[in-house]
Input
Amino acid sequence: MPDKLILNKINIIALIAGISTLVLIAISVFVPWWQFTVGKPILAQVNFSPVNFNLAFLGSQVTIPLIWATNLACFLTLLSGGIIMLIYSLKPNKSYSKKLLGFGYKQPLFAVILFVIELIALTIVANSLAGFNVPLQGAGALQIPQSMTQGSGVNVSVNVLAALEWPFYFAVVVAGLCVTARLYQPKKLTAVASTPTVAAMKIN
Amino acid sequence: MQAISVVLVLISIGTIVGPMAGAVIMYRDNLSQLVVPPQINNLINGNSNSKNGNSNNNSDNSNVGSGNFGVGQNGGGFTTPTLVSAQINIEAKTFTATVNVTNNFNYDLTINSFNATAESSQDHYQLGTISMDSPVTLPADQSSLVTASGTWTQQAVDYVQNNFAGAKSLNVDLANVAIDVNGITIQQTEPINVGDIPLT
Output
């Protein structure tokens, strides 16, 4: 019976969501959500997740400061979201809990949405600036625009491979868990409030 | 309650604005570098980076190209291959050609395939085909010899005998040249003249 009471004081879904968010951050630093490979053997590779953007071209790493700052912002936002989600899960019935949940559950969701927007924007920018039709998923052959070969009498096409990696799908699951925790909250408050034994135990 | 709200708002703002502001302050003297750092400019301008990841800003680098991506005389990627030698086996109707390919990148590259059609420069009569037997790796910043082999047909023999009787050599073009380097396929739209091929 005491175990059940302790469980009643913890939002299990939020706890799992919070832990999953922290796990997702750790994974996303090392494993990309989206990988784009140019050439075979590889000439250039882009590893992209909301917390890490890694561009390697001809063996050299290229860091774009704005994207680096965006990654760091996303990392901190997700981290704060995960921690606050954990705090909420342990104290779901406090007066401020709803505010914690309201903050925490959004972060993985925003990360997934932001990532998808960035990915689409990246392909649009690559297409509009350089004329490359970058695939989001699957293999393809990019035709290099004639303007880039400067009339040297050559046609150039590049084998590319793009793939959404498993952390992306894990992120979608984590975002789903966070949303579920948010939806689960009102029912839990009602359930606890309508349980007379809880109030009785607290008085004793 | 109120304090929690304030803290959450501060966290929201701080986690986003902090890194962004930091980046802007770091690059305040040249904000364009926030999006296009010098490394990318070097790559666009043909300054390839060294294998250990160092970039350079020198504009007098011998690897500097004209900003293009593909093949050209002293272009950013490859120098147009030059014929070094050719051997012909008339009885077997086969030939081998060795060309010098310069890899101007500081990065090992692999020629996966090479295909071309040999034709007479005079009237573009198709004499035979030429291809590479197996992939060849071109070490960084080096010239390498690449050997390709090919065959010609009896019709080509008849053509030469009928049109170049007594000639000691035949001027040959390579047409439909297609080369696959690390998955990048470069197709030459114009024939490449490889000079006179001895007939005797």
Summary: Chain A has one domain: 2-203. The longest helix of chain A spans residues 166-193. Residues 2-203 of chain A form a domain with the Butyryl-CoA Dehydrogenase, subunit A; domain 3 fold (CATH 1.20.140).
